[in-house]
Amino acid sequence: MAVKKSGVYDAILKQVNAEMYSAYLYLQLSADASAMKWNGAAAWLRAHAGEEMTHASKFYDYLIRKGIDVKFDAIEKPATTAKDLHEIFKAVYGHEIKVTAMINKIMETAIAEKDYAAAAELQWFVTEQVEEEETARDIVDMLEKAGKSPEALIFIDHHLGCKKE
C-alpha cells in the first residue's frame, strides 16, 4: 500500500531528480575537462558523478522504505560553458552551494511537518554538503593560486586524478 505523499516526500522526490541532474552535470564537466586534456580533473569529476548517483539512490531508497509511490520527472540537460579548469570548478562549487540550499529547504519542511524520521535521514545529507562545499571550494582556491602557471595546473590535475573523491 502506497503512503500518501506529503510536502517533505514530494521535496525528497524532487531531490532525487536534482541529484541525478548533479551526476549528469558532473559527467558533462568530466567530458569537458577530458576534451581540454585535464585527465586528472576528468577522472575526479567522473567519480564525483558516481557519488551523486549514490546520493540519488539513498534518497530513493528512503522513499521506497517509507512506501512512497515514486514517479520520476525528466532530467534537465546540463548547460556548461566552462572554458578552462578554473571555470569548471567554479561551476562545481556554485552547484554545490545550490544543492546545500535545496537540502536545507527539505530539512526545514521535514521539521515543519514534524517528520522526524525524514529529518534524521536528511541530517546525513546536511553533513555531506559541508564536505562537498569544502572540497569544491578548496579546489577553486588551489586553481586561483595556480593562476595560469602550467606547472601548477599540471600538479593540481595530477592531484585530482590521484584523489578521485
UniProtKB/TrEMBL annotation:
<feature type="domain" description="Ferritin-like diiron">
    <location>
        <begin position="2"/>
        <end position="147"/>
    </location>
</feature>
<dbReference type="InterPro" id="IPR001519">
    <property type="entry name" value="Ferritin"/>
</dbReference>
<dbReference type="InterPro" id="IPR009078">
    <property type="entry name" value="Ferritin-like_SF"/>
</dbReference>
<dbReference type="GO" id="GO:0008199">
    <property type="term" value="F:ferric iron binding"/>
</dbReference>
<dbReference type="GO" id="GO:0006826">
    <property type="term" value="P:iron ion transport"/>
</dbReference>
<dbReference type="GO" id="GO:0008198">
    <property type="term" value="F:ferrous iron binding"/>
</dbReference>
<dbReference type="GO" id="GO:0004322">
    <property type="term" value="F:ferroxidase activity"/>
</dbReference>
<dbReference type="GO" id="GO:0005829">
    <property type="term" value="C:cytosol"/>
</dbReference>
<protein>
    <submittedName>
        <fullName>Bacterial non-heme ferritin</fullName>
        <ecNumber>1.16.3.2</ecNumber>
    </submittedName>
</protein>
<dbReference type="InterPro" id="IPR041719">
    <property type="entry name" value="Ferritin_prok"/>
</dbReference>
<keyword id="KW-0560">Oxidoreductase</keyword>
<keyword id="KW-0409">Iron storage</keyword>
<keyword id="KW-0479">Metal-binding</keyword>
<dbReference type="GO" id="GO:0006879">
    <property type="term" value="P:intracellular iron ion homeostasis"/>
</dbReference>
<keyword id="KW-0408">Iron</keyword>
<dbReference type="InterPro" id="IPR009040">
    <property type="entry name" value="Ferritin-like_diiron"/>
</dbReference>
<dbReference type="InterPro" id="IPR012347">
    <property type="entry name" value="Ferritin-like"/>
</dbReference>
<dbReference type="GO" id="GO:0042802">
    <property type="term" value="F:identical protein binding"/>
</dbReference>
<dbReference type="InterPro" id="IPR008331">
    <property type="entry name" value="Ferritin_DPS_dom"/>
</dbReference>
<dbReference type="Pfam" id="PF00210">
    <property type="entry name" value="Ferritin"/>
</dbReference>
